[in-house]
Specification:
The complex is a heterodimer of chains A (310) and B (314). Chain A has a domain at 93-307: MetI-like fold, CATH 1.10.3720. Helices cover 68% and strands 0% of the residues of chain A. Chain A contains 16 helices and no strands. Chain A starts with a helix and ends with a helix. Chain B has 314 residues and is mainly α. Chain B has one domain: MetI-like fold (Orthogonal Bundle), CATH 1.10.3720.10. The chains are: A mainly alpha (310), B mainly alpha (314). At the A-B interface, helix 1, helix 2, helix 3, helix 6 and helix 7 of A face helix 1, helix 2, helix 4, helix 5 and helix 6 of B.
Amino acid sequence: MTDASRTTPRPAPPSLPDPAPASDPDPVRRSGRSARGRVSSVLKHTGLVVVCFLMLYPLLWMVASSFRPNDDIFTDFGLFVDTFDFDHYPTGWDALGHPFDTYLVNSLLVVLGSVIGNLVSCSMAAYAFARMRFRAKPVAFTVMLITIMLPIHVLIIPQYVVYAQIGWINTYLPLIVPKFLATDAFFIFLMVQFIRGIPRELDEAARIDGAGHGRIFAQIMLPLMVPALATTAVFTFLWTWNDFFTQLIFVTDPAKYTVPVALRSFIDAQMTSDFGAMFAMSVVSLVPVFLVFLFGQRFLLRGIATTGGK
Amino acid sequence: MSALGEFRTLRRTRVRRGSGAKREETPDNKAAALFLAPWLVGLVAITVGPMAASLYLAFTDYNLLQDPQFTGLDNIQRMLSDDRLAQSLQVTFVYVVVSVPLQLAVALGLAVLLDRGVRGLPLYRSILYLPSLLGTSVAIAILWRMIFGNEGLVTRFLAHFGYDGPGWVSDPDTALSTLIILHVWTFGAPMVIFLAGLRQLPRELYEAASTEGASRTRQFFSITLPLLTPIIFFNLVLGIIGSFQSFTQAFIVSNGIGGPSDSTLFFSLYLYQEGFTSFRMGYASALAWLLLIIIGAFTALNFWASKYWVFYND
């Protein structure tokens, strides 16, 4: 965030420091650690474990509840299940108008389209911003940064009107096409940051060998940008999977519902009796998020740290 | 460097260029146009175009079926006497002003606790970060609705201590606080940003302070906090912009209504109701612009105030 980080050369991307490698013991505070230090360390770990438990408790309780008989759900605070009820999953799966896999596939389609769109369009724009000289670049770049912060609300009504006129409501086009037009400017910025860290000598050498921008971009930049592309893919996946506002507005046909919009129907008045089924499908809807978190964590943390703080 | 830092840099480079920087050799205008084509089309068709259109619609009466009727300042007049708008503004302000600082304080506290060579840091960090990925999902909002419902866990738990009121989500006095709790629960993302920032602080300062006999508390307030102010500022600006737009949680917890008694009527939710359930799209567009102006004003205020408390070490 400081200008200092601008003048000091940023490390080359392949060796980009993991913003949070394993703990590094602080030599200053380690030295002269006494029994008092050990006590405070135990206290700290106890505190952290308690905080972690409190944070996870609602999640674990929801998972436990999805295996409990409905009558037990709200009387049991515990996380261990004594009487298992496995019916909630099959019941929940078929509780709505369509089997739950319909919604999962629908969401997956939207997510896939969005990920591909963001990867293609944002990497192209980022390359131009980071490596090309063109007229009005500072203006264009500023405009791009401003659009990151623009609330969707000022766009969505006219967008809805236009999509309604061209028959895009109840298709996934309003959710996917904008991604192919680099409207998620946050990712352009993330990639620009990353490309700036790639030594210019690489593309200059290629240029001397006669390569044009197309080849430099495709054959040199893209392979080097894989970590930034992975971060973009992971974030796009999570944000699109969880997105509710635009999906609620653009998709109103129950057969086309995505997971969040379908889940929402569980809380409509008549449905609220079968808590177990509702929790079961909530758990199902979170499984992909959890998996992406598990395998993409590295890229998530890196993405947050490179664009977030410094 | 963050997007916010970028604005500062831009301002400086412009000044520098004025002082006779050499002209670039070969501009790539054509190739750049090609690479930026998708973005440009998107900017015009998906962003600037709709923005202009909604500005126009803000001065019309429009229900999607008939053509928009230009009504001048009617929508603005209507805003001034709209009680639900006043209520939604109040709810949103309270939510932003309470939940954003609270979340940041928790995030900073845990980041500082985790930064000091704690064993098992990656595990703690992962666990604490996970909720921030789930927090905006419908599933978690449903869970919250249940936990704080009439039969919910929290209600039953409190009953052990003699509480016999309704679930927090059905009481207008407490419904909003369940959403604030949900927001605080997602402190993991700013915490990770703080952790990354803490790692960049120069160790020498702490060594010097230790030798001088400064206590840890003193070190926190005299070194850590001032050096972290740019990151606090960044988190604050983004947090405020984000929470003004919160929608999903309030929608699910109140089943789309914003109740009880409009106590969870977030601005976005009110806008959604006006635009997409009552189909008053002209008025909803005016509301959208009001939101944009409010967010812009808050951000500008933040930048202005940052002169007095954000410390840039450069």
